[in-house]
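#random but structural
TW: two for the price of one
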Amino acid sequence: MWKSPLEEQFLYKAKRRMKVYKGDPVMNKKIYITINHLDDFESQMFLMPGDVLTLKKDKKNTYDDEAIAVFTKDNYKCGYVANSVRSVARGTFSAGRVYDLIEDEARCCVRFILPEEGCLIAEIV
């Protein structure tokens, strides 16, 4: 049965996502993300390496369709996963790349804090 290139691309991405959830050894690597807008929420003062944060897809965000909000254990919004070429730290995933890999909620652990840039690096756990 003939499939259009668009259908083939969709099926390829769907199969790749399935491999991620089934623990494919190639895709089973650590995923780091950049969390920014910490200054907007005054979050830099109380976040420390080792803190566990909650990632939630922000489907009502009018600015970014793939926005992922970040919350503390007290359900306080402390930032967003970076999604711009200018704001994503080298070696980390953007919100667009992570959006399809997580469910509506996920957890991450703070690994590094970069106060000069107003962001931090976290690992999805």
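TW: number two ↓
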Amino acid sequence: MVPETFLVIKCIRILWWGIFLSYVTVCNGKEILDVKNEDKTCAIGKTCSLYNTGDFGLFYTLHNSLEMEKLGFGTAGLGENTYRCVRQAIAAGFRHFDSAQADEWYQEAQVGSAINDEILEGTLTRGDLFVVTKVHPRNFRKEKLLNAFETSLKNLRSEYVDLILLHYAGCWPDGTGPGFCPENSGSWFVAWDALEELYQQGKVKAIGVSNFEVDQLDQLWDYSKTKPHVVQNWFDPFHQDEETRRWCSNHNVLYTGYSTFGSQWVYINPDIRSNPVFGNPVLRKIAKAHGKTINQVVLSWALQKGVAVIPSSSNERHIQSNAALFHGNVNTNQLSVFLSEEEIFEITSLDGQLETD
């Protein structure tokens, strides 16, 4: 074989191997192969691959180098059970807690009381925790936002908040209900300026938004001095918010999913009378194959797609089960349910099978 021919063959082999490696490995933890092949979106996790052995890591790293636990505990809708559930979640190993100022859905003060009592008892320190709150649109005027933030600090018994989000881009249009705002409540542009001020003062460690559409995220990106660290939106197997996740991946912003178990469907679609996630045959089959719960399968699927998750429950057994996703405790590195490429594909294929209205 002449040297030139050998060199060409060698280069082709090297090129093929490089293409293969780029296909199955992680680029700085930012992007994974999506089994649809058209959705290569992933948040900025340290470990985010379909092809590792389950040694997954506990944290995502935000673009300001702040670490946030991948698996958090959501406190929406817990009502008078909030205090008890937060303490049970801490006992199970959760250290990331998601709350909000909207007392229509959240009990921020109970979250703070539970955390404070655990600290007083020596279970943990404030530095062990990652605490999130959200600003209601009715508080978007700068003075109201800053006052509401001080109230949040008092509620949470803390001198700072790890992450604060704008809860919605605006108030609900019907003028009634829990999303109602008075006139002149302020725009999210003004509210973002105030969040940037709190961030510069060190009173919050990261800032972001929730329930924003992609066009609003584009406006925010162009407008902001401090770029958002986190976007939190509705995400479940039937509503995978692909466009927003792609935006986050392209802008190095962490995507967090709420209502990952499908609870939103019974609220937004009157024709859906029971949670479609728990009754889905695909999810049931995969859960049975692993000997795990549907909750654990869905959480593992979300994490393997690079999505941070904040499952909520008022049932102690379910809280412990969710924590056990990381081999019995969220303080270990390994997922107890690690899905195959084929299983990821099956779940991802459920996207869009239900109508949102």
